[in-house]
Amino acid sequence: MTAALAVTGLEVVFDRYRALKGVTLSVQPGESFGLVGESGSGKSTLLRAIAGLAPVTAGTITVNGKQLGRRRDKAFYRQVQMVFQDPYGSLHPRQTVDRLLQEPLAIHGIADGEKRIRRALAEVGLGSGFRFRYSHQLSGGQRQRVAIARALILEPSILLLDEPTSALDASVQAEVLNLLEQVRRDRNLTFLMVSHDLAVINHMCSRLMVMQDGLAVESLEASDLATHNVQSEYTRRLLRASVGFARDADQSWDLA
Length: 256
Prior knowledge:
Elements: E1 5-14, E2 17-27, E3 32-36, H1 43-50, E4 56-63, E5 66-67, H2 74-79, E6 80-83, H3 97-107, H4 113-123, H5 140-152, E7 158-162, H6 170-187, E8 190-194, H7 198-204, E9 207-212, E10 215-221, H8 222-226, H9 233-241
Parallel strand pairs: 3-8, 3-9, 6-7, 7-8
Antiparallel strand pairs: 1-2, 1-4, 4-5, 9-10
């Protein structure tokens, strides 16, 4: 099976600082794959490099069997969308929700915009009454739902999720995580998800990669994480620092 997303020997350098040091991973279609590690480990840089927002010095990135060049074209963004950590900073404060959702449709020349807007808002649990509100009129959770709707509007096959719930209250985190999981199943999406929270990754992802200082430390099944069946001492330290995480595949995620 052709990987939905494959990264081989990826290097990213900022002013002589090697942020990524030969990272390799492969994510299968419909899979939810997690990236964990402490701040500065290179998790978000990897997502940004895939999205074309960080300079790739060496290595290759392949999406659905097609190797990417230095620049991302419109076809790439029809397949891959990113949801950022900060729902306050990722939405234009002077645009209504309707305008925020119409903009990518206009850029890509998509004609069935009305249908897509209604579907995207319904999927994230926001009714038509939110269409003409501004971001400052929304709660943090509602803003992140709008950001997810905007990512879905082009009907991509891959979502890059950079700490999508870390700026939200615990109860709202649970709602957004359950929403993301439902959307992934309904649309058969592929997720590459960054989080510092092992509980979130353990709940959302079937496999994960542990990163430290720009390197891939080890790759694990979620079941290995749950049973502490890990090889790296760095991963063991992450586990010890994480409090009270658990996974129950038969229940919705509950942070309360």
